[in-house]
Structure formats: C-alpha cells, structure tokens
Design brief:
binds flavin-adenine dinucleotide, alpha+beta, eight-stranded antiparallel sheet, about 25% helix, globular, about 450 residues, single chain
C-alpha cells in the first residue's frame, strides 16, 4: 500500500526501484502505464500508479559541480537534504527550497516547487538550466530553454506526466553563513497580514502562519516571519567560529497515530490560540539569527508528523488567488473553514510573484493559502466548498497537494492545460504511458 505524505488515498501499487537509466526501457516494455516517484512528499495521489510506480531514490548521484558558477549536475533521485549537507559547509545554497528538505530533485522539478522567496525568485524550475527526460520508449532527450523547449516547459510542474526526469542541471547560490536574520511580526487581522507582506517585498523570504479559527474582527490574524541570509561580518561572536555549520542531528518523533477523537474544534482551536499568543509575545523581540534548517524546514524537526492526523490520514488544501481577488477570496476561505469548525493546525499564507514558464506550474501573482484537514465525514464537502470559492475568485489548487479537486474546476484554473496536453500527447505517447492516480482522477 502506497500513499503520499497525507496518507490519503492509500493504494495497492506495484513498486519498482530504478537503479540505472539503462533499466528503464525494460520497465516501459511491460506495456503498462507508469509514474515516477521521488520521496513521496506530495500529499495526495500524484506519485501513485497501481499499475507501476517507479521509485527514483536509488538514482542519487551528484555528478559534477562547477565551483566557479555554482552549477550542479545531479541525478533526479538526489535528496535536497543531501545537497544541503554537501554544499552548505562549502558556502552554497539552492536558489529555491520548499518547506521540507526531504524531497528529491525530480520531485522539485515535476511540482515546480516554490519557497518563501517566490515573490523575488520564482519557482525552482526557473533555476533549472537543463534536464534529461526519458520518453515512452526509454529514449532520452535533453530539454532546456533552447532544446526541446516546449517539453522543458511542460515538464516544469508537469507532475511526472511528460516522462521520467533522470538528471538535471541547476545553479546553487553562494551564501556566507548558514544563518538567516529573521523577525516575526504579529498581525491583528487579514488586512494587516497582507499589508505586512507588501511592506516586506524587499525581504528575500516571507511567510505567515494564520490562526484559521479566528473569526469576526480577528479573521486572518497571524504571525508573519521574514528573513534574509546573514553575511559573515554581522554574525554574533558565538556563531563566528563555524558560520557554515549544519544543524545538530536529533529530532522528535510522533510514535503512534493520534486518535481521531482528539482532533476536534476545541483541541485545534486551543492549539491555534496558544500559537498566536506565544508568537505575539515573542514578536516584540528583535530580529535574531536563526539557523537555515529551523527557518526553512521547521516541520522536519518532528519525524512522522503526518501521524498527528490519525490513521485515516489528512489532506492539504492549497490554493492561490490572483492579487486583486485575494483579500475577499482568502477572507471567504477562512470564514468557511472557521464556520465548519474543521480548523487546521497549520494554515500558511504566502505572497507569490509573477507566473513562471512551466505550463502547469501552480504559482500566479497573488496569495497562496495552505490548510490541513484530517480525513473524516464532512471533509469532502468542506473541500468542495473551498474549491468553489477558489474557482469563483479566479484561483487554482496546487496539484502536489491535491487529493479531491473537481476536474472541471481544476481545468479552468490552469489555462495552459491545452498546451500541456498537446506537448504530452507528442512526448508521452498516445494513450500516454506516464499516468498517475492524479492524472486519471482529473482527466489530465
Ligand atoms: C512538510 C512539507 C512541506 C512542503 N512545502 C512545500 C513548499 O513550501 N512549496 C512547495 O512547492 N511544495 C511543498 N511541499 C510539497 C513538495 O515539495 C512537493 O510535493 C514535491 O514534489 C515532493 O517531492 P518528492 O521527491 O517527494 O516527490 P513525490 O511526492 O514522490 O512526487 C511528486 C511528483 O513529482 C513527480 N516526480 C518525482 N520524481 C520524478 C522524476 N524523477 N521524474 C518525473 N517525475 C517525477 C511524481 O510523479 C509526482 O507527480 C511540501 C511537502 C511537505 C511534506
């Protein structure tokens, strides 16, 4: 049984591990459809195919690094965690990182992931110079902005549906230290939260946690954190001896599935109230140095935190709304969540910059909201309600998180879907050899 990070849905899939590129034609010649799988950190059904799911984790070699330009050439199964461990001590950092370092390079390209710096630096795919893609017959093609450019644009955010990414080339950026100067500011309502984002445009990294059960005058209240990598000269003396250190090992672990009965309006409401008050109290403090690991990947410190939502699993709903629609649209989404009483431990708001080049990339200029919900009776109806609001306000949902979206709404949210399908039909065979539960559910 295989699932994504949300543990919903869980499907009986045939799983094979790819160890060398040369073995791929053998898997393709079986005549079934297949989907590549990275580290399974997408939440829903994007990396599941009952017929054949191909794990890329053994394709984990870093092949070349140019210390003059920062260009890294690596196989698609390399974990972001390994890139950080190898290159941060040398003074290099990836241009874009998502909220967990337990993802593969292939997964970051296929979902065209965004980080806390999207408003300034766009998606990960925007920094990929070229990639090697295996097609339905196992033959490989180099794809870049100048070679097989349409296939390149379809593969960024293409959720594995254009082929199997075998390797990629992208540029790391120099950093002088492993520390981010970070500050957290409290906002009393949604207007204030959004105003803080606008006022923080010059900060490379920004993100806000929202108390999604607050209603009335406090709707959208939250804690906005912004940060920038520190230069060596401004490090406090206690950090000077090892400015490019890695975070100490050791973390907490959720040992068992939390009983669903403990996840209710009261417990989640108390959790949100506690976080807001604690954060508001601390927000008065000055900006302080925070290790990049804690700043970018706070959830990685709790191993198997997906068990917090109990055995039935959970879904993450992440949408983006265009700038002009975002204040009303995000307010409507939060009102719907608060009214349903199905609050989420984690509600995250983030400002996005312009749409990128990937035909199916998720970000568009505006605000993105992400919410977690345990799977239970009523969750599907709530998600449908949220989808309807997103759709009404001209937004779209993130396929790397989705498990439930209605196909028609999804299609309208992605205006370049037609162009994507045309490229996929040519590159992936007809009918396409690369398919997932997600692509079937949404008729991609
Ligand atoms: C705690 C947490 C925080 C997150 N924060 C963010 C965030 O801030 N921003 C963001 O954008 N995302 C975020 N995500 C989502 C995550 O970054 C993406 O889902 C990413 O794609 C997961 O990578 P993976 O290697 O685990 O891929 P998987 O989940 O295994 O696969 C994801 C997709 O990539 C495809 N794929 C994987 N490898 C290949 C390959 N070699 N060739 C072709 N296709 C391939 C799969 O078919 C699938 O469609 C977060 C996830 C978690 C669990």
């Amino acid at each position: 049984m295989l699932s994504g990070w949300g543990r919903y849905p869980a499907l009986d899939c045939r799983l094979e591990r790819l160890r060398r590129c040369e073995a791929l034609p053998g898997l393709l010649h079986r005549g079934t459809t297949l989907i590549a799988r990275g580290n399974g950190r997408s939440y829903g059904d994007a990396a599941l195919n009952p017929e054949l799911t191909v794990s890329m984790l053994a394709m984990d070699r870093m092949r070349a690094f140019d210390a003059g330009t920062g260009l890294l050439d690596c196989e698609a199964g390399v974990l972001l965690a390994d890139i950080l461990e190898t290159f941060v001590p040398l003074g290099w950092f990836p241009p874009v990182v998502p909220g967990t370092r337990l993802v593969t390079v292939g997964g970051m390209i296929a979902a065209d992931v965004h980080g806390k710096n999207h408003h300034r630096d766009g998606t990960f795919g925007g920094h990929v110079e070229s990639l090697t893609l295996a097609g339905p017959d196992g033959a490989t093609r180099e794809c870049s902005r100048t070679e097989n450019a349409d296939l390149f644009r379809a593969t960024l955010g293409g959720m594995g549906l254009t082929g199997v990414i075998l390797s990629a080339r992208f540029r790391l950026r120099p950093v002088e230290t492993a520390f981010v100067m970070a500050e957290t500011l409290a906002a009393r309502d949604l207007n204030e939260t959004m105003a803080l984002f606008e006022a923080s445009r010059d900060w490379p990294h920004s993100v806000a946690w929202i108390d999604c059960l607050a209603r009335g005058a406090g709707l959208g209240r939250g804690l906005m954190t912004r940060g920038a990598f520190m230069e060596r000269g401004v490090l406090p003396p206690r950090l000077e001896s090892n400015p490019l250190c890695l975070a100490p090992a050791g973390k907490l672990r959720v040992p068992v599935d939390v009983p669903s009965a403990l996840l209710n309006r009261v417990s989640i409401g108390l959790f949100n109230e506690f976080c807001y008050r604690l954060g508001r109290g601390r927000a008065r403090a000055e900006a302080r140095p925070v290790h990049f690991d804690r700043f970018f990947f706070p959830l990685d410190r709790i191993e198997a935190w997906n068990r917090l939502y109990g055995r039935p699993g959970f879904v993450q709903y992440q949408c983006v709304l265009p700038k002009g629609e975002a204040p009303a649209g995000v307010a409507a989404l939060l009102e719907r969540v608060a009214a349903a009483g199905q609050g989420s431990f984690l509600a995250v708001l983030k400002l996005f910059g312009p749409t990128g080049e990937g035909l199916m990339s998720f970000p568009m200029e505006g605000y993105t909201l992400a919410l977690d919900f345990p799977v239970r009776s009523g969750t599907a109806a709530l998600l449908d309600g949220l989808d309807e609001i997103t759709h009404r306000h001209g937004g779209r949902v993130y396929l790397a998180k989705d498990a439930c979206c209605a196909p028609a709404r999804m299609r309208e949210g992605y205006p370049r879907l037609g162009a994507f399908k045309a490229v996929r039909a040519e590159a992936a065979g007809a009918p396409p050899r690369f398919a997932s539960e997600l692509s079937r559910r949404l008729a991609l």
